[in-house]
């Protein structure tokens, strides 16, 4: 199965996206199609690559535009917004002028002016509506543009007939112009909102390095497009440059802005031997690095891919609403015709009611209700370092009743930290200095305290015990109790470490020349926000349980700090079995980050992991946290609650508006609505959905 991605321009409403989906799905060798109106994008799963050109041709035949790259896409969006703003202002000014003449001036000059100005508003300012409507009709696609074009054109033609004295008494030139003005106003606000919903995606796009400086074997430096960088190429980076690839630093030191990946606003110091990701910005310093991957396979590209896929996702509810919207316009056209026939032979009354039905109905409010709220929720989450791979996660979060945590790397830091020691300062610094020569996680935790790493002696590693270091006439032992069991004064150190056992169960003994000098107790520190998260879950009556493969003592210590239940020494299969059993009673959220969590992450009703988790864990998760802060999960719950509430309000408004307004326009309550008032109500309907959705962006609670 092959995948094709396209950026699509000139979509004016949700029904445009639906029309593309329906048309392309009919092509041979097209397996699946997903078009996002809010993101102006499409993804196509193909059985054969030969169908690519047919897809592009079909989209252009429908009246839409294929955009070749992100830069052009952004340029087109900005030009579209500027053009829309100009046409909106012109339409509003001319329509207001027409209204003044219609109300206060009753002479031939006034009627002539109204005719000319309405012609400009309808056929210049509203040209895109007519163009899209005609394109759609050619391919049997009915959209909101069909209703707007037909409504404004009908009002204009009717007014022409009155103007030339064929029938009727009232001119509706201003009404026809107002239709275009109000719809343009709604479209302008909608486009602005769509752009706001894509700020995070644009930010990722801006982080992409366009050029790369490659150091050749002969010492020459060559500047090439970043897409030309190959694995193992040597690259040079200087101040204010962006890393084009993921790589290993060979030389140099630099302060690097990694906020796009880890959410930390403070620069990170990077030096030789450490890795750096594509998109990292050099604040100060210089680096020489070796490319680990091509630019197209970098962490930044993977993140952009996740964002792109999430933006195209359609929930079952969205697909149902798309189907309703697809038939909605046809239903309204038939209803308008029936209303027109019902009021005959009173031609003016028949025309006004039929026109009001055409203009007041609003498929856009229905089509925007869910995707716009989800797009803004996605943007809000991304701004808070929450990446929603699956937007349906927001719906499921509100149903969660049990949260299962992995321990190491999820509730606790991936690295150990020194909890306490009973060594003199001199001996502790010596221990730390020796530990710089070991890559063991325990050694790394102690080595952080070292002020220098130069050693003259010889190290011998004792597998499963520790290491022996000989320097001059001295022999040092560093390791577990088994390694130092024959040393003097061991009992004193053992008693000290026993007092730390509850909080720091990992112990290291340090002996010199047969005498135990002391010991170090280490622990996995709780991650930031772990206690706050558990307290929040308790307040929401959501049960929490730790599932860990660690020993019981280590897990019990964390569980006691958090005051939650736990299960220790669990294999990946044990975790999966426990989860499946509990799923008989609860909707379950699993939070983990390791390879051994992959099966549970996939099987859970909802799963969350961190950006630094294993690749397999991230593939099987619904939400990725871009910062090592568990309080972000609390924000996930809050975002889910707010989004669900806003979507419910949007759908309630969209359905209730159409159920009430269409009969009203048809004259069910013995009322007659003017065309421009019907158009205003239709625009306000879409505007209500847009403004209600924008409440997510304006939410100051996070």
UniProtKB/TrEMBL annotation:
> Among its keywords, does the record have Flavoprotein?
no
Q: Which residues form a coiled coil?
A: 190-224
Where it sits in the cell: the answer is: Cell membrane
Q: Which UniProt keywords apply?
A: ATP-binding, Cell membrane, Coiled coil, Ion transport, Magnesium, Membrane, Metal-binding, Nucleotide-binding, Phosphoprotein, Translocase, Transmembrane, Transmembrane helix, Transport
HMA domain location: 2-67
**Does the keyword section mention Plastid?**
no
Single Gene Ontology MF annotation = ATP binding
Q: Which domain of life is it from?
A: Bacteria
Q: Membrane-crossing residues?
A: 88-109, 115-134, 146-166, 172-189, 324-344, 350-378, 651-671, 677-694
Protein name per Swiss-Prot or TrEMBL: Cation-translocating P-type ATPase
Q: Which organism is it from?
A: Campylobacter upsaliensis
């Amino acid at each position: 199965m092959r995948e094709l991605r396209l950026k699509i321009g000139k979509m004016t409403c949700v029904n445009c996206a639906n029309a593309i989906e329906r048309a392309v799905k009919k092509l041979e060798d097209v397996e699946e199609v997903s078009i996002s109106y809010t993101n102006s994008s499409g993804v196509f799963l193909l059985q054969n690559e030969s169908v690519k050109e047919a897809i592009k041709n079909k989209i252009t035949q429908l009246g839409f535009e294929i955009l070749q790259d992100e830069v052009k896409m952004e340029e087109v969006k900005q030009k579209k917004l500027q053009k829309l703003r100009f046409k909106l202002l012109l339409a509003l000014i001319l329509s207001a002028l027409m209204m003044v003449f219609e109300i206060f001036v009753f002479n031939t000059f006034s009627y002539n002016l109204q005719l000319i100005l309405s012609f400009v508003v309808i056929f210049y300012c509203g040209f895109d509506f007519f163009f899209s409507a005609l394109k759609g009709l050619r391919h049997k696609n009915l959209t909101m543009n069909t209703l707007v074009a037909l409504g404004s054109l009908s009002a204009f033609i009717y007014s022409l007939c009155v103007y030339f004295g064929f029938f009727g008494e009232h001119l509706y030139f201003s009404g026809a112009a107002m239709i275009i003005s109000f719809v343009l106003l709604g479209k302008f606000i909608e486009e602005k909102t769509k752009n706001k919903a894509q700020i995070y995606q644009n930010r990722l796009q801006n982080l992409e390095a366009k050029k790369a400086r490659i150091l050749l074997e002969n010492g020459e430096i060559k500047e090439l497009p970043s897409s030309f960088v190959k694995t193992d190429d040597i690259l040079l980076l200087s101040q204010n440059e962006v890393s084009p690839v993921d790589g290993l630093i060979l030389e140099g030191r630099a302060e690097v802005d990694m906020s796009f990946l880890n959410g930390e606003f403070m620069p990170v110091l990077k030096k030789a031997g450490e890795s750096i990701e594509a998109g990292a910005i050099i604040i100060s310093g210089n680096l020489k690095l070796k490319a680990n991957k091509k630019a197209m396979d970098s962490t930044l590209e993977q993140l952009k891919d996740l964002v792109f896929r999430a933006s195209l996702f359609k929930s079952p509810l969205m697909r149902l609403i798309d189907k309703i919207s697809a038939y909605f316009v046809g239903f309204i056209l038939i209803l308008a015709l029936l209303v027109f026939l019902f009021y005959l032979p009173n031609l003016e009354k028949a025309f006004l009611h039929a026109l009001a039905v055409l203009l007041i109905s609003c498929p856009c409010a229905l089509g925007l209700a869910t995707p716009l709220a989800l797009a803004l929720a996605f943007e809000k989450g991304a701004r808070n370092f929450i990446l929603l791979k699956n937007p349906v996660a927001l719906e499921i979060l509100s149903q969660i009743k049990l949260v299962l945590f992995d321990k190491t790397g999820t509730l606790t830091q991936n690295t150990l930290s020194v909890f306490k020691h009973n060594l003199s300062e001199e001996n502790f610094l010596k221990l730390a200095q020796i530990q710089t020569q070991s890559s063991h996680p325990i050694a790394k935790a102690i080595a952080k305290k070292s002020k220098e790493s130069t050693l003259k002696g010889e190290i011998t590693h004792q597998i499963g015990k520790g290491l022996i270091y000989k320097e001059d006439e001295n022999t040092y032992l560093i390791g577990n109790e088994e390694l130092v069991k024959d040393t003097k004064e061991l009992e004193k150190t053992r008693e000290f470490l026993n007092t730390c056992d509850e909080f720091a169960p990992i112990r290291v003994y340090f002996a010199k020349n047969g005498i135990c000098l002391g010991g170090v107790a280490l622990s996995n520190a709780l991650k930031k926000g772990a206690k706050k998260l558990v307290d929040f879950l308790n307040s929401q009556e959501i049960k929490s349980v730790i599932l860990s493969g660690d020993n019981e003592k280590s897990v019990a210590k964390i569980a006691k700090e958090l005051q939650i239940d736990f299960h220790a020494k669990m294999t990946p299969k044990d975790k999966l079995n426990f989860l499946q059993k509990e799923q008989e009673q609860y909707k379950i959220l699993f939070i983990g980050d390791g390879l051994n969590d992959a099966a549970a992450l996939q099987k859970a009703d909802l799963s969350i992991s961190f950006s630094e988790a294993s690749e397999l864990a991230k593939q099987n998760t619904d939400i990725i946290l871009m910062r090592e802060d568990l309080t972000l999960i609390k924000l996930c719950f809050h975002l889910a609650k707010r989004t669900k509430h806003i979507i419910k309000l949007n759908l309630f408004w969209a359905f209730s508006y159409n159920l009430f307004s269409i009969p009203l326009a048809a004259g069910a309550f013995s009322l007659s609505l003017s065309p421009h008032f019907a158009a205003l109500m239709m625009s306000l309907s879409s505007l209500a959905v847009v403004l209600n959705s924008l409440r997510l962006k304006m939410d100051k609670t996070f």
